[in-house]
Amino acid sequence: MRLHPPGVPYQPLCHTYSITARDSKSGQLGVAVQSHYFCVGGVVTWAEAGVGVVATQAMVEPSYGPQGLGLMRSGSSGPEALARLLASDPGRDIRQVAMVDNEGRAAAHTGSATIPEAGHLVGDGLSVQANMMLRNTVWGAMAAAYRSAPGDLADRLLAALDAAEAEGGDIRGRQSAALLVVAPISSGHLEADKIFDLRVDDSSEPLVELRRLVSVGRAYQHLQLAQAALARGDSSAMSMEFEQAARLGGDNPETRFWQAMALMQFGRANDGLAILAEIVAHDSNWRELALRLPQFMLVNRAELVDRIRQLS
Predict the structure, then answer these.
(1) Residue among 195, 169, 198, 165 nearest 181 (CA)
(2) Of the residues 231, 238, 257, 297, which has the maximum number of CB atoms within 10 A of its CB?
(3) Is residue 24 assigned to a domain?
């Protein structure tokens, strides 16, 4: 059984639905995807702050990701970059690719030999695309959901994925999902520019798990803001950000632990020890960690060490 046309080398068979977009308010760029394919995020999703986003799928040529970003980084618009790469690709008929640049100029291609139901819809700052779908209503539903959803870019991308699944999604079912959102302007540090870089590689409910990971990711964003507030001596902002982190973090004690340590640094030893006691009651390893922290992280260390040791 031949999986690729003659003369076209084997590439991953990543049939899927995805959305690429630029948020007009924040300038953030993002791409989200779901598929019945293992580790879909490792193949389909590409983004660079201040440059653009790419989704490459169907019978995938992964080089569309880095090459498309490279062309957009060099000044090509999203449509121009996609056209140039398609022109030199002998396998263009089995590809599905979308690109959105940092100005919101979008383009998509659905090859004539992609497996039905297959199609795409391009709008201002937006492209939705799908192949091997149960129904041909998937990409239209994705676009409508994205445009009407409240929240930030991540929220709206997730809404588009949910809408696709509600229309039947991938004819084979579901397995993996991914979300990649980057800042509107490059800081010069690729990893620091990633607002979300989340993957669910193998799950019976990948979109449910992806939403949970977004919530955890937001918790850690608030944790970083709390630590920044601590560094500048803003106790009020620090407490607010720690509380947000704890609310979003669920059962994870990490944010509460660092809140306890921060309160001790601010001279609020009793408040910090009360939080630490709740954590230690469930897992004494957190007490041991607190005792191992360096001097600069514990004001009045000698006094606090004795009180921490008494926690049980």
Answers:
(1) 195
(2) 238
(3) yes
**What is the DSSP-derived secondary structure letter of residue 298?**
S
Q: What is the DSSP letter of 115?
A: P
The secondary structure of residue 42, as a DSSP letter, is G
Q: How far apart (Å, rounded) are the C-alpha atoms in residues 69 and 13?
A: 22
* Tens digits of residue pLDDT in 158-179: 999 999 999 999 999 999 999 9
Q: What is the pLDDT of residue 297?
A: 74
What is the phi-psi region of residue 117: left when phi exceeds 0, alpha when psi lies from -120 to 50, beta otherwise? beta
Residue 113's CATH number: 3.60.20.10
Number of domains in the chain: 2
Question: Cis peptide before 117, with omega less than 30 degrees from 0?
Answer: yes
pLDDT, one tens digit per residue, over 109-119 is: 999 999 999 99
- Cα torsion at 29, 142, 247, 237 (round to 10°)? 30
Tokens of 116: 């039905």
